[in-house]
Amino acid sequence: MTDLYQSQRAMRKMRQQAMDRGVIAILDVGSSKIACLVLRFDGAEPAGVEGIGALAGQSRFRVIGAATTRSRGVRFGEIHAMQEAERAIRTAVQGAQKMARVRVDHVIACFSGAEPRSYGLEGAIDLAEGQVGAADVARVLAACEMPEIGPHREVLHAQPVNFALDHRSGLGDPRGQIGNRLACDMHLLSVDESAVQNLAHCIHRCDLELAGLASSAYVAGISSLVEDEQELGAACIDMGGGATGLSIFIKKHMIYADSVRLGGDHVTSDISKGLQVPLATAERLKTLYGGVVATGMDDREMIGLGGDSGDYERDSRTVSRAELIGIMRPRVEEILEDVRARLDAAGFEHLPARQIVLTGAGSQIPGLDALAARILGQQVRLGRPLRVQGLPQSATGPGFAAAVGLCLFAAHPQDEWWDFDIAPERYPARSLKRAVRWFKDNW
Amino acid sequence: MCAMSNPARDPAPSRLAYRVQRLWLTPLFRRALFRGMPLAFLVALPAVWFADDARRAAIGTEIAALRDQIVSRPEFMVGMMTIKGGSDELRADIREVLALDFPVSSFDLDLKAMRVVVQELDAVKAADLRVRPGGILEVAVQERVPAVVWRGEAGLEMLDRQGRRVAHLEQRAARPDLPLIAGKGADAAVPEALALIAAAAPLSARLRGLVRVGERRWDVVLDRGQRILLPETGALVSLERVIALDHVSDMLARDVLAVDMRNPNRPTLRLAEGAVDELKRIRRLQAGASEG
């Protein structure tokens, strides 16, 4: 536990260093594409417009380089072929560096797989003095009972989502307030240890320093949910290539995240199998003609499958668009039903506002919102990521929700458990640090 | 897209290419390459060329030859020296100490050093050297004017009003117009001596000279071996008193060996031997004693 605490703190320190230097890279390691953005932090507010600085802090940075490459060696949002993935990351980073004309050394990465599991933690302490100080916050966070997250799991996020002081709950920042008993709720997201280690290793092999890690479901939610959706309760469904991530937000905190190991790649492989075409062709058919709601018009629209087998009969096959939709729809329904099952398990129906936002490249299937409304509930909309300064037009689609969210995450990270000092009780009893802390706190 | 067939061409850069590009984007490296390398090249090129002894020597002779060529141009040549002011002996002395071998280039003339050399001559009070257009070295000297003759340990020397040595003198008779001073340390008190001599103008016919005694006070020496012993301080006032006494009572015309003014409160006369006897005889006569 302390190991992770230290490594997360080290990453946070690295992130601070990168911010001081002014350049940091964002890496979205997805199953179908790897995107790299280079951000420049110069602290300059855009002139003239008052209040724009509060826009999620996004005016503090500028995207100066962006590159995307087809992902290799990544499956279900996890790295499964190290060399391939490393080459893909290298391609993306090099392209972005070339565009930015600057060398980046620090990178913040996100990934969608690694079986995220959410835990709700709660802890409470009695306050010695009446007033809550920073040390008390650290103590109450440390007082949260650590759940059994199982072997070979690591904590990716551990965010305090709520503080309660005596009978008052829903406090954002309890510091300075007066009470007797401080309680907190913490959301903890654990992921598979080996997936994190593989990603860290890949990034390390590219001569980059890992300055932060995030779950892509979480960061996609940051970028594609608007502020009141985050406040009132909403779910963000990030439909990627190999995995579909979902995150639930309320009161501007993520309270649940999960991922379904199904995505656009499965739709492609269904088309490939059903129509007996290569995967590349299947991907093209899906992108150009795909859909989930068939109409009478679609029966008449014939699509040439093409091919260069030399067999005329085979190469001149055609299918109607309705057939293509017929292949795609069950798989998309399956994905959405899986998501629905996860949302039900998380108790999504108890939220005050049950907004659902579909984002990710998979959300671009025509007619998906109608289908999703049937399966997930009435309040469904398609989400696109927030606009950030300097982002190229090609990187503004819903497929870049996670990358853009990671930019916002880099500029304005949520307080995590490891951002607070270690509570003095957790130091070894005879530690010199403990003595120093005691002196600091008491004088 | 896990199971898709790999494309024929992989766009991924090799590890080396990736590292080279990162290196290329490093600001320090770029600066070193764009600024440092040309600079190093510019420095290294002459350094390598000059590493060879023969080349260095060749360039040295080349430069020397070029310098000679410029220095020996007629515009820079100095053909003669004129000396303004000073006596003939002094001019000869200056020519001797400068020892210039005309014609000489003005680049080779170190006027400052030459001026120092000229000023080191005792007879020179001030000297100015300049090269006039037309290749003439002009030396303007101001000669010291001898004021007294000093008979010291090294013989006769002429000194100016400040006591600075002007020249050696073979015979006293060569400069009878100058007063004579003598004694060790007399040259250090020449201004005082000159004041005393001026004050002694009424006695000038009888004045032989001044003697410095014990490097602290003056004796005025008159003819017939008469001396006026002056005190260390207030010598001038004492001398004026003696002259006044002389004026009133014609004291110095009498048979007095010395007037001792060393203690101004108690002037003392030293009489000659015969004079003392004569004085005693006169005293007796006045007392009414008969001769015999």
TrEMBL record, chain A:
Membrane topology listed for this record: Peripheral membrane protein
Domain of life: Bacteria
Keyword vocabulary terms for this entry: Cell cycle, Cell division, Cell membrane, Membrane
GO process terms (BP): FtsZ-dependent cytokinesis
Recorded GO CC terms: cell division site; cytoplasmic side of plasma membrane
Matching InterPro entries: ATPase_NBD, Cell_div_FtsA, FtsA/MreB, SHS2_FtsA
Family statement drawn from the similarity comment of this UniProt entry: Belongs to the FtsA/MreB family.
Function: Cell division protein that is involved in the assembly of the Z ring. May serve as a membrane anchor for the Z ring.
UniProt xrefs under HAMAP family: FtsA
Subunit structure, interactors included: Self-interacts. Interacts with FtsZ.
The protein's name in its UniProt record: Cell division protein FtsA
Source species of the chain: Rhodovulum adriaticum (Rhodopseudomonas adriatica)
Gene: ftsA
From TrEMBL, chain B:
PANTHER family to which the protein is assigned, alphabetical: CELL DIVISION PROTEIN FTSQ (PTHR35851:SF1)
Keyword Signal belongs to the record: no
Pfam families referenced in this protein's UniProt entry, alphabetically: FtsQ_DivIB_C
Species this chain originates from: Rhodovulum adriaticum (Rhodopseudomonas adriatica)
Protein name: Cell division protein FtsQ
A Gene Ontology term for the protein's cellular component: plasma membrane
Membrane topology: Single-pass type II membrane protein
Domain POTRA: 76-144
